[in-house]
Amino acid sequence: MEFDDIWNLFCKFCLIVFILICINSLIGDFLFRCKYSFPHVSAITEEEINVLNEPIQTNLAHSNGIPVYGEKNKYSLLPQAKYSISGRVVAKNSNFWFRDIMRSTFDDVCLIDFGIVWGDLAPDKKRLHKHMKFKSHKTLGQARSLEWRTKPPYNEVPWDFNYMSSHLSHTHMIPANANIMGGLLKIKKDDIVKIDGYLVDIYDSRAQIIARTSMSRSDTNASSRGSGACEDLYVKQVQIGNKIYK
Length: 246
Hints:
Strand order of the largest sheet: 4-5-8-11-9
Largest sheet: 5 strands, mixed, barrel
Number of domains: 1
Structural class: alpha+beta
Shape: globular
């Protein structure tokens, strides 16, 4: 067999493997969404969500571990604070493609990410999107981050950097149950939401640390407690408009 024949066979093999990976990814994403696509509304409330409020955080001196199951493995969550955040969703990421190949242990337990703003950034979505742009994504290096920037003309941006960076968050969500996850999947960009739960550190079944949550809205880089200033939130309740899922 000549080299060209071997090369053609190799290319065909690689193409078949790539197609199978894509099909597997599509099926996995489809099954993932089907599993959580029919949540029931737990309650209807007349209390409006106040997006001007700062997140409410009550640090815990002592707490017991919470056992949870990811999509494949078992984990333990150690609550660090009771936490409630109200705001406008500016970015959402649940599209972790090639989940069976590129999925980390962190991806296995934190099922969805949201970029959320509050305070003076949140009430007027037209003003917000006129001056700022957001994107939540996962890199090839497995990092899940929120990119944000201001838009020109920069001298017309009504907020300074410190205010903007301290009034937005990128939160990795660990739903307490399938109904809450279904509620989280219903959230769309620009929705007004209120999410309640616990900021948690994440451990695997061997008690090895996977991730530490951020405990501050003012940390901004990888030297922070959360190794990137992101919150890891064990979600006990989500409110979208007047609908509550828990």
